[in-house]
Specification:
The chain is built from five helices and 49 strands. The chain is mostly beta strands and about 800 residues long. It has two domains: about 1-100, Immunoglobulin-like (Sandwich); about 115-800, Maltoporin, Chain A, CATH 2.40.170.20. The strands form five sheets. It has a 30-stranded mixed β-sheet that branches. Strands 11-12-18-19-16-17 form a six-stranded mixed β-sheet. Strands 1, 2, 5, 9 and 10 form a five-stranded mixed β-sheet that branches. It is globular, with a radius of gyration of 28 Å. The two termini are about 50 Å apart. The model is unreliable at about 1-15, about 100-110, about 785-790 and about 805 (pLDDT under 50).
Length: about 800
């Protein structure tokens, strides 16, 4: 493959690359349209879009005189001087755009973005491009995005690989595990702008995340003065979903203030069936008992979150800013379980009726201070961030059980178990980044980061006997965890020829951890230094064909919830437990991507992961008990190919089709015995959009995934069909969106796990069909301007690993 790329690099070419940068009032202008025009008649030769930092490049093989035209919403159109193609890179002057006058403040510009955009280092999903996203939450939007899968418990994987870091506006999602699922379900699609998918991030990003990074970008205002939007949403099928949100921005002189807030309430049901055969541990063959369980689960969640921030422009070169956010929500899950235990010939011996009442209270606040200074006009700059995040997570669990014999008569006295599991988490991070452009289009980047994390988790369990609470010493525990990670990175990129360019990076991370089990006086410490290289090679064959080859080594550290050794009951016979002895898992990722005409993208990938962290089942056949535990059990290999095609078929019809086929092989020692699993899985995600009269648009799409493996679990295939309609009203200041998700109610998930003495199967159906209506109104008093500065804070890896109780 390297020989193939190098031979491309030696090919002769006469192409000319026009490069430049676009800004306004010392701020980069992203997503501006850049047109390369023939000087003699202004006919369009090539079109490009400016990047996040305002830079652009556009290449042509044609000879002659050209000029560059820049068009951006809210700014006057601007032209460059004439340039003559010379087969080399031409530096176009800096474009300093001027905002349109206030007299044009009420002019509405409507631009339609494609659903999926393929960039060099990421795939971008434009949320508003799909009307079927109306009424959906962030988790459901991710589920429909290319390459992303959400399992039965809401865990997220990318191209069949677990271990994805979730960012929000370049900042961490703050939570992981079930708390991340709850947070994503609380976020409405109407507040989302884009989903950025990066399967192999560069050295500037934290090395954590086995499968890469998903950055969820929320909507930002683009106007001087006071402006914003408000959205009201209602969804219903069996239970209601309500939401109300507001986004606002105020810009005057050197000050920009922005904020948003949302309140929501969701209620839903879930039906779960579990069958287990408890086998003789000595033979793993003879069935000792048959376990059948049905759970009728009712979930409700509600809460609010708010964020406020400010940027202050000290001068044209220096900006300081701060962001403060707060989240508060409550989740309740009531599960009514009916459990039957039969002998090997299926004669009922005993039954249990159990009611689990779990309440999860979650609140957090976070603060960020940031600094940016442009050192010179060549683009040399330094940025810095300091973050502090505080979490207070409470879990109040109650389990009531009644026991009956095979004839349905009371067998013994019922029991009650009460658990109080509070958790406090403090995270402090600081980082500094330096960027220096070099001659010939090269760029050097370097940075430092440090983080300190402390978690304090207590588990207090009581049994209630004859109305008296008695401390359950065997289940109660107290765990304190401290972690310090220090990192440094360097990155260098450079065009090697007119068609061939590369980027190399190296990140070093030193990690020291100490876990203290106060109840048992056990202390677990780890200290390690790891290197994480990255490499990217790009070859532009011609205007139609582009190749990218990249490699990266990544690490997936256990989230704090997985390190917590507490035993948490799911029902009378099923328990979940963390593992303070978990080690990080490491992966090697290689991808080769080919893009044809910008609309057809094909990717080949290979990943090898060692010491993979996964949930395994351990069974006590004599007590009919099952423990779900986290462990480093095996290695996994994946080979895959994906194809993404976006096309504008006609003026009124556009669509995107994504297909991914991959083979996962999982093998290692599980519960002391060798286990091996393999499956080839196919995924397809289709979305088609139709423009009707008077601005109305109609969208239909869905996805299907064939049988797959998730570590020790085999999951049957399932799919979803969605559609939506969007109608602008009130002279485009408002819009009404109607959507139906999971039209056929087909998201019914089945699976099994069979290895050693484990023989289990499950079936799950939840309230995935939702009929929704959303109303959005946009208000403004001012004129359009460039988007406020976007920030990536320092708490990227740490906050993604936060976990609390099971919501």
């Amino acid at each position: 493959m390297a020989f193939f790329c190098l031979s491309f690099a030696n090919a002769q070419t006469n192409s000319t690359k026009f490069v430049g940068k676009i800004q306004s009032q010392n701020q980069a202008v992203e997503a501006a349209t850049v047109q390369l025009l023939k000087a003699k008649d202004s006919s369009i030769v090539k079109i490009a879009v400016s990047a996040k930092d305002g830079s652009f490049e556009v290449t042509t093989n044609q000879q002659g005189n050209f000029l560059v035209c820049v068009i951006a919403n809210g700014f006057a159109k601007q032209y460059s001087s004439n340039y003559t193609s010379n087969g080399n890179a031409i530096d176009v002057k800096l474009f300093e755009l001027k905002p349109i006058s206030k007299d044009l403040a009420n002019v509405t510009v409507v631009a339609k973005k494609p659903l999926v955009e393929m960039k060099l280092d990421r795939t971008i999903v434009n949320v508003d491009a799909s009307p079927s996203n109306v009424g959906a939450n962030a988790l459901e939007v991710l589920e429909k995005s290319p390459g992303i899968s959400v399992d039965k418990d809401g865990n997220i994987s990318l191209k069949g690989k677990a271990g994805v870091l979730i960012y929000m506006d370049g900042k961490p999602a703050f939570v992981s595990g079930q708390d991340l699922v709850n947070l994503l379900r609380s976020m409405q699609a109407s507040n989302l702008d884009q989903i950025e998918i990066m399967t192999n991030p560069p050295a500037k990003y934290d090395a954590s995340g086995n499968a890469g990074i998903i950055n969820i970008k929320t909507k930002k205002s683009k106007a001087f003065g006071f402006n914003g939007s408000t959205t009201t949403g209602f969804g219903y099928f069996v239970n209601p979903r309500l939401s109300q949100s507001i986004n606002a921005n105020y810009r005057k002189n050197n000050v920009n203030i922005f904020g948003n807030a949302m309140v929501y309430y969701n209620r839903s049901f879930q039906d779960l069936e579990i069958d287990r055969n408890f086998l003789d541990n000595s033979t793993n063959k003879n069935v000792l008992s048959i376990f059948n369980q049905t759970n009728n689960i009712t979930k409700s969640s509600g809460g609010w979150n708010a964020k406020m921030g400010m940027d202050y422009y000290l001068n044209k070169k220096t900006t300081i800013g701060g962001v403060f956010s707060i989240d508060d929500y409550k989740n309740t899950m009531i599960s009514d379980a009916k459990i039957g235990i039969s002998n090997p010939i299926r004669i009922l011996q005993m039954s249990t009726q159990g009611i689990a009442d779990n309440k999860n209270d979650y609140n957090s606040y976070s603060g960020n201070l940031n600094f940016k200074h442009i050192i010179d006009t060549l683009g040399k700059e330094i940025t810095a961030d300091v973050d502090y995040i505080k979490y207070n997570i409470g879990n109040d669990n109650k389990l009531f059980n009644k026991y009956y014999n095979g004839a349905g008569m009371p067998l013994s006295k019922g029991d009650t178990l009460v658990g109080d599991l509070p958790q406090l988490i403090d995270i402090f991070t600081a980082k500094v980044d330096f960027t220096m452009p070099l001659k010939g289009g090269a760029k050097f980047e370097a940075g430092l980061k440090t983080s300190f994390v402390k978690t304090d988790a207590n588990a207090i369990y009581d049994s209630i006997n004859f109305g008296q609470r008695v401390r359950d010493i065997g289940r109660s525990n107290h765990f304190v965890y401290n972690e310090n990670v220090n990192a440094a990175y360097v990155s260098f990129s450079k065009p090697l020829s007119k068609k061939f360019s590369m980027q190399l990076g190296l990140r070093m991370e030193h990690m020291h951890t100490k876990g203290n089990l106060l109840t048992t006086n056990q202390i677990v410490t780890r200290d390690s230094v790891q290197l994480f290289p990255t490499a990217y090679f790009q070859y532009n064959l011609n205007d139609k064909n582009n190749f990218v080859l990249n490699y990266g080594r990544r690490v997936q550290r256990p989230n704090y919830e997985s390190l917590n050794p507490f035993v948490e009951f799911l029902d009378r016979y099923t328990f979940e437990q963390g593992n303070p002895y978990l080690k990080p898992q490491f992966s090697h990722n290689i991808e080769l991507t080919h893009s044809f005409k910008g609309f057809l993208t094909t990717t080949l990938n290979y990943t090898q992961t060692n010491d993979i962290i996964t949930a395994v089942l351990e069974q006590n056949s004599l007590k009919n008990e099952t423990f779900v535990k986290q462990a480093n059990v095996a290695k996994q290999q994946q080979f895959g190919i994906s194809v993404n095609a976006y096309a504008q078929y006609t003026k009124w019809w556009s669509g995107n089709i994504y297909v991914n086929v991959f083979n996962n092989t999982f093998s290692g020692i599980v519960n002391g015995e060798f286990a091996s699993f393999e499956a080839t899985t196919g995924m397809i995600n289709i979305s088609q959009n139709f423009k009707l009269k008077k601005g109305t648009s109609f969208d239909i799409g869905g996805f299907y995934r064939t049988k797959s493996i998730d570590a020790v679990f085999a999951i049957d295939g399932f799919g979803v069909l969605n559609f939506g309609v969007n109608q602008p009203i009130m002279k485009n200041k408002g819009s009404i969106r109607f959507g139906v998700r999971d039209v056929l109610w087909s998201q019914k998930i089945k699976g099994s796990s069979q290895y050693g003495s484990v023989d289990a199967a499950f079936r799950q159906q939840q309230e995935s069909r939702v009929i929704s209506v959303n109303f959005t109104y946009r208000f403004s008093k001012g004129s359009l301007k460039t988007q406020q500065r976007k920030r990536t804070t320092g708490a990227e890896d740490e906050a993604n690993r936060v976990g609390g109780g099971k919501g």
